[in-house]
Amino acid sequence: MLKSGVPFPAVDRAQTTYYGISYDNAKKMRQERLSPALFLYYKSPVMLNQGHMQWIWDHTGKRYLDMYAGIVTVSVGHCHPKVNQAAREQMDKLWHTTNIYMHPRIHEYAEKLTERLPGNLKVCFFCNSGSEANDLAMLMAKLYTGATDIISLRNAYHGINGCTVGLCGVGSWKFMVPGISGIHHTMNPDPYKGLWGGSHCRDSPVQTQRQCSCETNQCQATNQYIEQLQEIFKYSLPKKRIAAFFAESIQGVGGTVQFTKGYLKKAFEMVRERGGLCVSDEVQTGFVRTGSHYWGFQNHDVVPDIVTMAKGIGNGYPLAAVVTTPEISKTLSEATFFNTFGGNPVACAVGSTVLDIIDEEKHMENCNRIGKHLLDQLAKLRDEFEIVGDVRGKGLMIGVELVTSKESKNPLPVSDMNDIFEDCKEMGLIIGKGGESGNVFRIKPPMCITQADADFCVAVMRKAFSNYVQRTNN
């Protein structure tokens, strides 16, 4: 039992003793030897020492339930024994070789991965991060179409390297330097805070409390957001052809924002009519996280031309991929293309094992069942607390937006968010933050969590909200 009075779920793993650099020395080295751009969570940052499935321990031995999974990256569990074993066995055989040589793992993995994708999405390019994958997708789209104009959504996040930062539609992630030309941002079809949408408009067990006149499977808001996209086509794009349209299946960094029903399907149709390619960013929503399909785009009844993936693909190992059709893939043969680390033997062994675990441990079913339970319980917090404006998501891709009042929907101030955030940490719960104003708690845990873990998460958040209300009322 924690000091908060919230029962801590049991774990069948003992903590290990920490023997590394002292906490104070680590803070000093961070200030002197690491980039100041590497920001830290919490007033007293956590220095992690150990992980096991959904649990992490700091250097003092304090245990936390990890409901953020290293930013939606630890898919099947911290230090999953089967993943660890696969990595060790491959390291003992062949640690590294580049893809100018053949090695078994890359071929076996490519077949296994593409078997899980629909249509003619059958050709892989392996790389190391989601930013790199989206950068490569941008290049292929331009080469294949002969066009350069690309559309993404406001509030989107597709990485922040030199090219993909142009796709980013969240101002807090942008630097004051010129981006690449030809990127256009269209209005985000957000049923909660957008101009249109309401209580029948998103694919989630929990709908926004905002009312709308839409009938089941007839989202009028989608038509209005599509009209905004048509305006982009009409006034901002060349008449002949465009290169691509990028979209996450559920926006991650932007605060777990779901689109109005049917929007992506209509948007894809419009893009293809103009000769463009449709790119689905599955960096956060892929690998069964949404609970109903293997890939988030399948929830929208679409098949993209290019799929980018990273994060959960390797359970934390640096691994990413771009999967496309044979025809589109040939574009990279027009010049020499190479990636030193993409598809190295250890990465492919890890990625292949992650796919096996997802199937063997029935993570899709777990994401669906625990996700619905967690969303239902979090919805009770929305009904209980004025500061909880919206609860949304699908599977284990969940957001909780905090506001000053339900009527205004104004974001809860950063200082207040941080107070609640700190309170959750002190009670043993690790969650993330997102949204343009940083007022959305992001709950995206390892997919092995249990109902007891979900209940602990809700209990801690309820206590933290209650503490906040008590402080502000005194």
Folded structure, characterized:
This protein is of the alpha/beta class and about 475 residues long. It has two domains: about 25-70 and about 365-474, Aspartate Aminotransferase, domain 1; about 80-360, Type I PLP-dependent aspartate aminotransferase-like (Major domain) (Aspartate Aminotransferase, domain 2, 3-Layer(aba) Sandwich). The protein has twelve helices and 15 strands. The chain has helices at about 25-35, 70, 80-95, 105-115, 130-145, 220-235, 265-275, 325-330, 345-360, 365-385, 415-425, 450-474; strands at about 50, 55-60, 65, 125, 150-155, 185, 245-250, 275-280, 305-310, 320-325, 390-395, 395-400, 430, 430-435, 440-445. The strands form three sheets. The chain has a seven-stranded mixed beta sheet with strand order 4-10-9-8-7-5-6, sandwiched between helices. The longest helix has 23 residues, at about 450-474. It is globular and about 65 Å long. The two termini are about 25 Å apart. The model has no long low-confidence stretch (mean pLDDT about 95).
What is the strand and helix layout of this fold?
Elements: H1 23-33, E1 48-52, E2 55-58, E3 63-66, H2 69-72, H3 81-93, H4 104-114, E4 123-127, H5 130-145, E5 150-153, E6 183-186, H6 220-236, E7 244-248, H7 263-273, E8 277-281, E9 306-309, E10 320-324, H8 326-329, H9 345-360, H10 363-384, E11 388-394, E12 397-402, H11 414-426, E13 429-430, E14 432-434, E15 440-443, H12 451-473
Parallel strand pairs: 3-13, 5-6, 5-7, 7-8, 8-9
Antiparallel strand pairs: 1-2, 2-3, 4-10, 9-10, 11-12, 12-15, 14-15
